[in-house]
Amino acid sequence: MIRVTENLTAVRRQLESAAESASRQPETVTLVAVSKRHPASAIAAAASAGQVHFGENYVSEGVAKIRELGRSGFVWHYIGAIQSNKTRDIAAHFDWVHTIDRLKIAARLSAQRPADQAPLNVCIQVNIDNEPQKAGVSLEAIGPLAGEIDALPHLRLRGLMCLPAAHADTARTRTAFARMREAMITIQHDFSSVDTLSMGMSGDMDLAIREGSTMIRVGTAIFGPRDSVEPGGGVP
Ligand SMILES: *Cc1c(COP(=O)(O)O)cnc(C)c1O
Question: Could you tell me the pTM of the whole model?
Answer without folding.
Answer: 0.95
